[in-house]
Each structure stands twice: as structure tokens, then as C-alpha cells.
Amino acid sequence: MTDVRPPSSDYSALVERVAGEKLIDPLLVEAMIHVESRARPGAISHKGARGLMQVMPATARGLGFAGDDSELHDPFTSVELGTAYLRVLHKRFGNDLPLVVAAYNAGEGAVEKYGRQIPPYRETQGYVRDVLARYEALRAAAAQGAR
């Protein structure tokens, strides 16, 4: 069985608080942090996304962030912006979680371009699969702990 303990447990209180404020399931945020950065705040993707939630600087600016790109490595900033973007995506794509996750990875335009479907990009399809699998594993573990 796969270890489903959140790797971002050092950030669990932060995730709980910020996700709660944004009305986003904190377990989804935990799953995304795991897939995006393996809970490494200093992570930088090959495309320039930064921090725990791998926020693109342009996306951050679109959300009103006026700081330096290096500030995206701050855990609070990353979780705050990442969950704010998830909120935007939930509003745009409703509760279609695979589309929300795909848009987080490939961009809203890519999801729209492909008829509100997961884009046929290998990276995005793998990302959606990995995030949703991690999310379901975390939900199952939480349900077991609640019994």
C-alpha cells in the first residue's frame, strides 16, 4: 500500500487555514503540493513555476500579487496564491475536479481549447491522474481515521 501521509505535514496547519478561507478541500491542496513540489518550498519547475504549489509568476500577478518572484517560495505566499487560483478554477469549471486540476497544470485556455476536456498533453494527463489518485488516497486515509 502506498504511504498516504501528507508530505506537507509541516504545512498542514497553514493548508487547513488558507484552504478553509478559500473554500477548497485542504486534502486537495495537500495532494497538489505533493505532486507539484514534494513539499519543497524552493522548487522551481522547468517552466518557471515556483514554491510548494508551483505558482507561475504570471499567474501570481494575475491574482494581484505584486511581490518579487522569489517570494513565491514562501510557503504562505505559495499556498495563498495556489488556493486562490484553485478557487478561480472552481468558479470557472464548476465542481468538475479533473478539469480544475487540468487547468491548474495546463492553463484555463488549454482546457477551453480542447472543448472543456483534459488537454491531450502527456504531462497534464499524468498530472491529473497523479493528483486525483493522491487526493483519493488522502480522503480514504482521513475517512479511516475518522472511524
TrEMBL record:
CDD domains for the chain: LT-like (cd00254)
InterPro entries to which the protein is assigned, alphabetical: Transglyc_AS (IPR000189), Transglycosylase_SLT_dom_1 (IPR008258)
Domain named Transglycosylase SLT: residues: 21-117
Recorded superkingdom: Bacteria
One Pfam short name: SLT
Record-linked PANTHER family: MEMBRANE-BOUND LYTIC MUREIN TRANSGLYCOSYLASE C, SOLUBLE LYTIC MUREIN TRANSGLYCOSYLASE-RELATED
Family affiliation: Belongs to the transglycosylase Slt family.
Protein name per UniProt: Lytic transglycosylase domain-containing protein
